[in-house]
Amino acid sequence: MIRLKMLLFSLTFTVISCKKADVSPPPIPISAYGEEYQKGANDETVRLEYNRLLDLVSVAYELDYIKSKKIDTTITTFPCGISSVDSNGSGLDLVFAGECNSRILTGKASIESLNTIDWNQRSATIKINIQDYIIKFTSNNKEITLNGQFTLASSNGGLISEIIPNSGGLAHEIRGNIDITFDNDSTRTWRITQKRYYRSAGSRWEDIQLRIDGDSGYSITETGKNKMGYDFVSNYNTPLVFYSCNSNQNWIPEFTLATGQYSYNVGTTSVNVQAGYSGEENGYTLVENCNSKRLKIDWYFNNGSKVEYLEY
I want to staple 83 with a disulfide (CB 3.0 to 4.6 A). Which of 47, 92, 97, 289 is the partner? Predict the structure, then answer.
C-alpha cells in the first residue's frame, strides 16, 4: 500500500510538473517577431517623431521669445503642424492640427519655464508636457500617440536664430519620459536622455545642423520596452546628424536626418540602424545628405540575419 501511494504521488507530481512547463512564458523569439516596418507601426518611427516634436517645440518657444523681446518680429507664422500658440501665464500652449509632410498632427504641448533665466542664457530650463500628440500617416493611416514630459535645459546659452549671424552654436540637454501607444493598442514607456547640439556648417540658413547624441556617459539615449513588450537599451554608435534642407529662407530649420547610427538588443536579437539611405526597392544607396530618406535596419538573430529599409 505504501509503495502504491508513493507511485501515485510520483505520477501526480510528474503530471503537475509537465502542466507547469506547458504554461511557462515562451522564450524571446529569434526572428523579427512579425514587426511591421511601415511608417507609424514600429519603434524606429517613434524615434523619428519624438525628435521632430522636440524640434517643433524648440522653434516655437524661441520664435515666441524673440518676438516678445523685439529681437526679430519679421517671422509671423509658426512651423508646419502648429495651429495656435497661446500664453499660459508661465509659458506657452501649443495646439497641433493639420497635415504636415504626409502626416496629420493633433494634440497639445504645454511649455512651462522652470526658472527666471532668459531663454537665450545658460541654464534656462523649460518643462514640456505632451498631451495626446497623435501622428497619423496619410500613406497608410497608421497612428502613434505620445503622452509624457520632457525637460529641456540650455547648456551654454544662445539661440538657433543666432547661429548663422554669429557663427556660433548651442547645446540643449534633454530628459524625458514618454508613453507611446502603438497601432496594436499596446502602450510602452521610454526614458530618454540626450544632448542636442546646433551648429553652423556654413554661412547660409540651410547650413544649420543638429547633432543628437546620448547623454548618460555611455552614449545611451533610450531605455524601456519596445512595441512587442521586450526590454531594450539603445546606444548611439555615432551621433544622429540632421541637415537643415531649408526652403524657407529664414532661420527656422527643415531638418532631414542625414547620417548617424545606433544599436540595441531585444533578447537574443541585436539590431543596428543606420541613417542616410536613398532609393527604392530596386536598389538603395547611402547618400548622407538632404536626399536621405530611409533607415537601413539590420537584424542579427541566432540563426541568421535580415535587412529592412524604413522610409522617414
Answer: 97
Side chain identity at 58, as an amino acid letter? Answer: S
CA separation for the pair 260, 96 (Å, rounded): 29
pLDDT of residue 222: 95
Below-50 pLDDT ranges, the chain: 2-34
Query: In angstroms, rounded to a whole number, what is the distance separating the alpha carbons of residues 226 and 108?
Result: 24
pLDDT of residue 13: 41
Q: Which residues touch 13 (CB under 8 Å, ≥6 apart)?
A: none
The residues spanned by each domain of the chain are 34-255
15 to 11, 18, 20, 24: CA distances (angstroms) = 6, 5, 9, 15
Chain centroid offset of residue 58 CA: 15
Q: What is the pLDDT of residue 24?
A: 36
CA 130 to chain centre: 13
Decide: 39 and 139 in contact? Cβ < 8 Å.
yes
CA distance 148 to 135: 15
- Continuous segment of H or E residues that includes residue 53: helix 43-68
**What nine digits make up the cell of 203?**
554661412
3-state SS class at 164:
helix
pLDDT tens, position by position, 14-57: 444 444 344 333 344 444 444 566 777 789 999 999 999 999 99
Residues near 204 by beta carbon (within 8 Å), at least 6 away in sequence: 164
Q: CB within 8 A of 311, min separation 6: which ones?
A: 39, 293, 294
Report yes or no: 234 and 263 within 8 Å, Cβ to Cβ.
yes
Q: What is the pLDDT of residue 5?
A: 46
> What whole-number distance in Å separates Cα of residue 170 and Cα of residue 147?
27
CB 266 within 8 A of CB 226: yes
- Per-residue model confidence (pLDDT) at position 37: 65
Chain CA centroid to CA 111, Å: 19
| Rounded Cα gap, residues 274 and 258, in angstroms | 10
